[in-house]
Amino acid sequence: MRIRELDLGNHPLLLAPMEDVTDPSFRAMCKDFGADMMYTEFISSDGLIRDAAKSLAKLRIVPGERPVGVQIYGHLMEPMVEAARMAAAARPDVVDINFGCPVKKIANRGAGSGMMREPDKMVEMTRRIVEAVAPTGIPVTVKTRLGWDEESKNIEPLAERLQDAGIAALTIHGRTRAQLYRGEADWTLIGAVKRNPRITIPIIGNGDVDSPLKAREAFDRWGVDGVMIGRATYGRPWIFREIRRYLDTGERLPQPGVRERVEIARRHLLRSIEAKGEKVGILEMRRHLSCYFKWLPDFKATRMALVTENDPERLLRTLDRIADRWGEVDMSADVPGLWQ
Fold it and tell me: Is 101 annotated in the active site?
C-alpha cells in the first residue's frame, strides 16, 4: 500500500490514534512489535493555535518511530487550516483529519464524527487543508465513520467527494457515530467503498480487528489496503507481531507468558518515565499496566498497587513479584475468541 510516496508494503497494520493512549512510549512498544505505521494522539486545532503546551507536545515525533501520522480535529474552518499547517511543520509522514471521533463533547460541537452531519462543510474543510499542506509535499488523509446514524450512512458518496478534494488515503471505522463503540463493526460498507470503481486511493479498514483471523478477513473478504487497530492494542502491543506472523506464514503464535509480559510492562514503564518524567510518566502508565495482566487470577490487590503506586522502584518491584507469583500461569488462552 502506498500513500503517495510513502510505501507501507503489503497488508500494512496501523496503530490507530487514541487520546491518552498513543503517546511516544506506547508507540515505541507497538513499533517494537511490528506496527507498520502509527499515529499520535489526536490533537485539538484550537489547542494548537493557542499554543497550548499539551497540544504542542503531541506534535513531538521521536526518531526511529516513523512512519507516523499527526491527526487533528476541530469544527471551525480557519483554525483547522492553520492547525494543519502547524502539524505539517512538525514534518510527520501524514497529516490526518479526524472526522470519526464519537465522543459526545467533540461530536456534539460538530468536530470529529459530528462533521458527518455537514458533509458539504466536511468536504470543503478537507479541500482547504489539502491546499494548505500541499506546499510541504506531505499527504493529507481522513479517518471517518459510516455516517451519523443508521438512517444516514453516507460513506460511499462521501468517500468519492473526499477523494476529489485531494486526500491521499481514507480510513473508515465500521460504525456510525450513534453506535459509539457498541455492537459489531459493519465492514460491508467499507468493502463497498473499496470496490467502487471511482475510488483509487487506499482504503484502510478499522473496527473490531482483535485477532489474526479478523485481520485476514479484512484483507481477503473486504479487500482493504490496510488495517488500523485501536482498542485491541490495550495491554497487548504484541498484537501486531501475532497478526503479521499469521498473515505471512499462517502460524498461530501463543500469547506471551507472564514473565514476558512483565518485561514488556517494565520496558514500557521506563520509556514513559524517560519521556515524561517520573510523576507524569507513572500517572499515564496506569491505564496500561493493569491491562498487561488483566486475566490473572486473584489479582485485585496487585492491580490496585499498579494503579496507585507513585514510586518507580516500588512499581518495578511489584512487577517482579508478579513474575515470581504468577510466572507459571498459562496465558495462551487469555484473549476470548482469539482463534474463532
Answer: yes
